[in-house]
């Protein structure tokens, strides 16, 4: 098959959907398919290159100004008068059998969707992010964008939607009704071997924390992953374990947790690194005694699965049926806590740090469930099966 992979985000830009798109593109090539990646330009990345058999074209783009509405996130759009012509040339020459899009609210998704509709090419859409915010005003804006912009565009070409978990399934059917040609259940995938390749000594030296107990919090800080509950758990943790350190690894696009840390007098126990290269993630996971960042009930993303895969104990606010038939069991695979419950978070963090043997037992079980259901090999095969079915329908 000839597969066009479309995502405004693609490495060297960091981020879950960027790395997922890259891993799948390389997986498609490794299985004998031809792949064209269409993405937005990024600083110091060439306009066109071929990496591991994947042809990557980065189209001219502009950056949105960093605003609170965009949670100061690094977002690029490629819309300009020349975009339709550029896509007609690229896709016309490539003649894809199917298009795999990542992200429902990006202009490259919309533009390639319109091309697919005109040229009768099937589209598979992976929705990685729900347009949601805990702030009522922002939520009103996001809901309006979904209703008046995103959904009407998707209805014009009706892609097949990938459902990654229970929350995403509910969101897709609520927000994009009438814009779905069908759905397929495929979870987020990752490379367990890579997640387990970390050096457990390197980051302690770089962070200067010595042998202090380390609570890792992995991923960009945004309103939906604000770290406030985790920060509010720290006074109780430090009362029991005074030398514990909370290490937040990711871009800080929302700093409410730091202001709360100052109010609670725990700022000295928090280390922030800013955005880190993807290659450093296994080292952080190998170093940490426990990882905790998903406490607002918004899902269980790539960073959480990488933590499970690495065998790092974890505390998160999800339900056991988050992945439907694939069950993540409390105290069997990891620690599950109620949403926004700082007291419960503190109790579980203290338990992990004081009883590491039991925590590692759970972590080993977590590794096994990742190997069975979430490995990139298994997920890529599910994607290819779906893409082949779509391409066959066209033929």
What keyword list fits this structure?
alpha/beta, four-stranded parallel sheet, Rossmann fold, globular, 43% helix, 395 residues, eight-stranded mixed sheet
Count of the separate structural domains:
2
Considering DSSP H and I runs of 4 or more, what fraction of the residues is helical? 40-55%
Structural class: alpha/beta
Secondary-structure element order, N to C: EHEEEEEHEHEHEHEHHEHEHEHEHEEHHH
> Can you tell me the CATH class of the largest domain?
Alpha Beta
Task: Kindly describe this structure.
The chain is α/β, with parallel strands linked by helices. It has two domains: 2-189 and 375-394, Rossmann fold, CATH 3.40.50.2000; 192-373, Rossmann fold. Helix content is 43%, strand content 16%. The chain has helices spanning 16-30, 83-94, 107-119, 136-157, 166-175, 192-195, 202-207, 228-240, 256-264, 281-287, 302-310, 342-354, 356-373, 376-394, and strands spanning 2-6, 34-40, 48-51, 54-59, 62-63, 76-77, 98-102, 123-126, 160-163, 182-185, 214-218, 245-249, 270-274, 290-291, 315-316, 335-336. The strands form four sheets. An eight-stranded mixed β-sheet has the order 3-4-2-1-7-8-9-10, sandwiched between helices. A four-stranded parallel β-sheet has the order 13-12-11-14, with helices on both faces. A hairpin with a 2-residue loop joins strand 3 and strand 4. Helix 3 packs parallel to helix 4 and helix 8 packs parallel to helix 9. It is globular and about 65 Å long.
